[in-house]
Amino acid sequence: MSLMSRRMVLGGVAGALAAPPLSRRAEARTGPESFAPLIKRVLPSVVNIAVTETVAGPDPLANLPPEFRQLFRDRFKQRRQQVQGAGSGFIIDASGIIVSNNHVVGSADTIVVSLSDGTQLPAKRIGTDDLTDIAVIQVQPTKPLAAVTWGDSRAMEVGDWVIAAGNPFGLGGSVSAGIVSARGRDLGVGIQDDFIQIDAPINPGNSGGPLFNADGQVVGINTAIFSPTGSSVGIGFAIPSAVAMDIVAQLRSTGRIERGWLGVQLQDVEASARSGAAAGVAAVDRTGPAARGGLRPGDLVVAVNGQPTETARALIRTVAATPPGQSVQLLILRQGRSMELSITVGRRPRTEEN
Prior knowledge:
By secondary structure, the chain is α+β, with helices and mostly antiparallel strands. The chain is built from eight helices and 20 strands. It folds into three domains: 45-138, Trypsin-like serine proteases (Thrombin, subunit H, Beta Barrel); 153-254, Thrombin, subunit H, CATH 2.40.10; 260-347, Pdz3 Domain.
């Protein structure tokens, strides 16, 4: 039987059998005939962001001999220049609350938001968080704005459809579709790394824009790409909504994020005959909370608040999520002996991680 005839037979059999009804989950995986209805509904909530930032300009004296550089230094020491940038954001409150990336607006002198109808509004920062690269800004509209809702990124599976929207290369009002390629990506840029990897094309200017699920809910904030060229090669990363929602709520409330801190340097320790994998204490800040709580270099932290801790990153995340002033219960191994310590968590300095 030829290949063509075999295909025709299989097609006939499939047509003769009664197809079982697709579940809602299966329909989501096959994708709609068009994303147009969804895009029309959510795109008015996506904004373009233009920023101006003052930075130190190039040193005009760099190529002069040392004696001449000193002579003209005072004349040029205030030399600075304005640079412009662009990014994206999305409206989460009709009153004008907008979410974006910290690296888009965090250092900006001026922020201008362009709505989908072309209206331009000045914006002010409400709060930023450098560790998660999340920022909240606000505009003062003359009428209520279209706002999107958060979805649950924890419900997303590899292979699910996603739509990225934003302002790539300053073009504005652009969307791209793809799937979730992977979850839980650690890019090594911060203690909170837990990115969704997507193949929906995102490019410079997409930063801060929303990642929608098939229901039009925001399940991520587009924030980074992996590319040898600087443009999309099909590997992009978004901050999960499960992380972003709490950060955004805190920024709206207080304008900053308060994280717990122990004052230790940690390293991963592989499983041994004495213990499973653990977080090893390499050094302790003599004036930090850990030192006051009795933690010592060489201790192995195997559990926090009764939950096993197998990596240094897991311990850091648990402590960072603990409000300063509260205590954590550590189960440690010290020279083979099991001990419990109660340590009151301090407030994380901006330059510290643990």
